[in-house]
Design a protein that fits this description.
Number of strands: 0
Structural class: mainly alpha
Order of helices and strands: HHHHHH
Oligomer: single chain
Number of helices: 6
Strand content: under 5%
Shape: globular
Number of domains: 2
Radius of gyration: 18 Å
Distance between the termini: 33 Å
């Protein structure tokens, strides 16, 4: 078997339209928008038959299928040259924890706030989107040295 180069990433405009159609489908089928943090609340309450578990399984299966079809599937730790694997994993876990705490305070995760709340024209969700992008731009410059 010969090695084949990975395929290019999906067109972001086409992917955005497809994501919007998935959101519309979620409303049509489940009567609810998209969001992942509700799974933790449902698991804590013992509601293992909640629709969010099907959604999360679809996210995992879809991501895996997409990476295999694009020939990008590999086990690796993305990091800059000056960052050790353990430091990268520690910072990723810390960032994930901080996002989880933020999701509790915001009463919704990034996908729920931006996708579902944004589609419903929620003022709080649009403020969240502006804050998330603003924070990303503000922190990108000081941390760029870790990725060179």
């Amino acid at each position: 078997m010969t090695w084949k180069a990975p395929r290019p990433y999906a067109n972001p405009y086409v992917a955005g339209v497809c994501l919007g159609l998935v959101l519309l489908g979620a409303y049509a089928v489940a009567g609810r928008g998209l969001g992942a943090s509700g799974g933790f609340a449902a698991a804590g309450a013992g509601r293992w038959n909640d629709w969010v578990f099907v959604e999360l399984a679809g996210v995992v299966a879809g991501g895996l299928m997409s990476s295999i079809l694009a020939r990008r599937w590999q086990l690796t730790i993305d990091r800059g040259a000056g960052v050790s694997s353990s430091a990268r994993l520690f910072s990723a876990a810390g960032g994930g924890f901080a996002m989880g705490v933020g999701a509790v305070f915001a009463r919704g995760c990034t996908s729920g706030q931006a996708l579902t709340g944004g589609a419903l024209l929620s003022v709080g969700s649009w403020l969240f989107i502006a804050g998330a992008f603003g924070s990303a731009y503000a922190f990108a410059w000081p941390v760029r040295k870790f990725w060179r």
